[in-house]
Predict the 3D structure of the following.
Amino acid sequence: MTLAYVKACGGDLAHWEAHWRRTAEETNTASPRETGASADTAPYLGLAPFQPQDAGRFHGRGRLVAEFIARLSRQRFLAVFGASGSGKSSLLRAGLIPAVADHGVGGRAWRTILMTPGTDPLDECAVRLAAVSDATAEEIHTVLTANARELPRLLGRSEPDQPTLLVVDQFEEVFTLCGPLRRTRFITTLLAAAQAAGSPLHVVLGVRADFYPHCADHPELAEALTDSQILIGPMTTEELRQAITQPARDAGCTVESALLAAIISDTAGQPAVLPLVSHALLETWRRRRGNTLTLAGYQAAGGIHGALAKTAEGLYVSLTPAQQACAKDLFVRLTALGEGTGDTGRRIRRDELNPGDDTRAVLDAFADHRLITLGVDTVQVAHEALIRAWPRLHQWLSADREGLRIHRHLTQAAQAWVALNHDPGGLYRGTRLALAREWASRDDRHTTLNASERTFLDASVQAEDAERLRTARRTRQLRYLAIGLALLLLITVGTGVVAVRQWREAVTAHQMALSRQFAMQALDLADSDPGAAMLLAAQAYRTAPTTEARSALLSMSSLRAYRGSLTGHIGAVSQILFTSDGRLLISTGRDRAVHLWDVRSGAHQATLSGHDTWLKAAALSPGGDTLATGGEDGALALWDMTARTRTALLPGHTRQIREIAFSADGRTVATASDDTTVIVWDVERRIRLTTLTGHSKAVRGLAFSPDGRTLVTTGDDKMIILWDLARHARLATLTGHDETASAVTFSPDGRTLATAGGNTTVFLWDVARRTRLATFTHGQPGQVITLRFSPDGDTLATSGHDPTILLWDVERRSLRGRFTGHKANVYTLDFDPEGRTLAAAGEDGTITLWDVTQAPLAGHTAEATDAVFSPDGRILATASSRRLMRWNVADHTLRSVDSVDSPQINALAFSPDGRILAAAGGAVQPPSKARDSTVTLWFPGEAEPIELAGHTGPVLDAAFSPDGRTLATAGADKTVILWDTDPHRVIDRICRTVTRHFIRKERERHMPAPPYREACTPA
């Protein structure tokens, strides 16, 4: 049979027969070693990765371990890439770490540290480093966040020159489990610590190969990877033979030559099957004959590709129906859905699972067969190979991926709500709650919710219902009051002077009631209909200047960016375009017409008719003289915008046109269609130049590069294709969206490409290098429909299947602002030529205009806790958890971002001259530790702030004296401290108070050898 495999693969029969006979003789005649291992102890680990203590059972990777050590003797940073299942974790854990710990590098002993990032990699790193040094985890964390280049000094306090190896396995967790801020901070810190001059720290990353593009998104990491990466390929035949036979021999077992030959044949050319091999060998060992692993046992287990699925499926089928439901819930929760990558494992806490005997039985069954790993309070799959190999699990994950994402968001929101002590502000509302309720009501979804998720969802529903009842009650009360007052007015008419007075009082009361009603309605409409909200607020105050009216009127300041609405469409608006001079706005939509609007006055100027179907797409030539439109009939219409008449109707597509774009010179126009094609047209000659075919599903987006040489298309097949227009050929294909690639646009300079997907994601790409630069997430789950760069390229606007418009700072890769003024999905956006005004339109048929320079400032990733203007009004400082941001008031741009070593900033204060900024910090709930009781000062011209120590509890407020010489702070420790901000005055006061120099004992204990200047000696 073995020779048949060789013959089928075109191998040399004589060579392989001699090789296998030699192997068989070796494996069958060699005496088992007297290693102390029992033949009853499994020699193979199954899916579980090898750990450092398993080094004695780890074989076949000696060559790679030697290469790693050689590289580490020359460099301090190394990244090991390999496909899931290539054995990289085992290689690092049982190969590299024991080799370095036992023998060192270059004859020197090394300290070794192993970690996985988890949800907070910096915290995890600090804990692991503290275990091998005499510094505490808190000390290390402080250094990591403040100045990572000081870490080598801290690690070297006990043994200054001893090298340290930090292995970060499963590095991909920084992309799947932790947020962007923590991810960036960890990567920056890790590289800074390794690259610091004289650093004893050597860093090795273990990364799944399909996360290589994610690594390239971080410029510092991409640069470090240039000459510091190793790719783990499949084992050679000899290496695989050692990995199979040596553990068996060490355990007192032998391997049949036919079994060895079959495994080598089954794994030929497959780079990521080592977990499957290990599991198949474990199952074969369980079916051994005496102390011999046989081919028959291997085949009974299911072989390489069937053993894992057979084991998992067999266990699942053996469960009761209730236990099967628990198993489904367990494995779905243990899987992190890929975002442009394959699905990965997810470590969860046991309390995320529903408690009970059925859950415990499932955990025990799958843990006993080494398919999952149980920690003290955690659960995870033993290896991600299970996710790929078990068809039933794959079916569960594929059946409703969008529903699984909704569930995952619900899980995270419920956990955050519990952590916030059930703060009502953490509950779901609006669209997010509606999506969760709809998902939870389908089929047996309620059975997959754990107790905290059900409580969270029920609390969210109750809170929304209560708010709805309160609103209805207020409206009803106001209505009854108005009716009652009106009746009172009628009753009092004709009763003389008293009646007149009562009438006036009734009128006043009636007006006040109306004022309050208008005010309440204004606040309710602020997010969905800003124009009506503003009018109602003004009407409320004009009717009667009640407290409620004044509150509503002043609250309209939050809508200062709103510049009005254009109404006149019947049905949804699908496209809006500013003319080149910014004076007119063109819109198309469901009513089959082209509308022209005067932007300044808001007046509707003209309606152009000529289509018989919904107009889905439109584009204006760069010169503004030609308009192209397309719709459900698949035909392209061209319009003369001077004469405002249609000049051509060009049939070409067999299904609806989704997108239209002009080249920069206006001579060419391209159309994208649901028929999977893109047609490029000659505008002047009205002819088809070429048809581009490369997508397998509907094409949704397209864009010309500013130089007109490249066309980019996106579609439902998730592909982003770059086309060379000179050759009408494909240049490259970009991948990353795991659902529909719905939109695409170039930055004005052509260097950056933005693409949008069906899973709320927006990617920024480097066009020249074809690499991903950044990822933005747009609001609620669903498709991002449109993207627009501002004319200067600094801002990217996004909208999608929700009423929200987001503005992103392209350079800083952060959220800059948001607008909410629609009742339904926003389909289209466009900037005016100056970039100051953004037009938006969508499903509700309304076009809204927004002043981009007046957008609410957005950039904090946590609750913003304070804001203060500088005395000259030019700078606004805002604060949140561990973060201080300074903004230019004139143009609302972000000036700087500073990190603060405090869990919460409670108050900010500028000195009267604006030169010093003070921040008072410390978490109030839960009670803060003393180290969180910070007062931080920023001085002009100094890169690093200073911290003042003195409070023993959270610092709640801060204020400067009128002359700016004294800062007062008040704390939860019931004290107010006055601080002098001038170091020279503090020294003078110290010298006046102490009135002496150091005595000899003090010098010997505290001071270095002279020369030095006495602290209180006159200058």
Q: What stands out?
A: The first strand starts at residue 77 and ends at 82.
